[in-house]
Amino acid sequence: MTARELHEKIKPIQEARGYRFNRDQAMVLALMEGLLKNRERYGYMSCPCRLAAADRDWDRDILCPCAYRDPDLAEFGACYCALYASDDWNAERIPHRFVPERRPPEKVLGPA
């Protein structure tokens, strides 16, 4: 599967749930490529902007769409990696601010 095919598969599903992708198509396709690469590496599509531990249970919170997408969208208009963005964010009606990492530090460091 190519990044474009993944995007075409996921887009209608996410839009039906009220989610939008970043309007920057090149960025979206690069992130889709990262998702496919992580699926190849780990067997699951973890967020391409975070370091996965190669343990599906440990990484459950960063399986795309990650557990942090909704609070990021609510507070900043885009998620951490900016794959998902609100209509206001895409239309530049709200500022594009840095989205801080919400993942707990112990999860970022990986399992012991």
Descriptive report:
By secondary structure, this protein is mainly alpha-helical. It is 44% helix and 0% strand. The radius of gyration is 14 Å and the shape is globular. The mean pLDDT is 95.
Which short descriptors sum up this protein?
112 residues; mainly alpha; 44% helix; globular
- The DSSP helix count reads 5
Mean pLDDT: 95
**Strand-residue proportion:** under 5%
Low-pLDDT parts are none
The biggest beta sheet, please? none
Structural class: mainly alpha
> Whole-Å distance between the termini?
34 Å
- Quantity of strands, as a count: 0
Approximate shape: globular
Which bin fits the share of residues in helices? 40-55%
- List SSEs in N-to-C order: HHHHH
Give Rg in angstroms: 14 Å
In short:
This protein has 112 residues and is mostly helical.
Task: Provide the fold topology.
Elements: H1 3-16, H2 25-42, H3 69-76, H4 87-90, H5 105-109
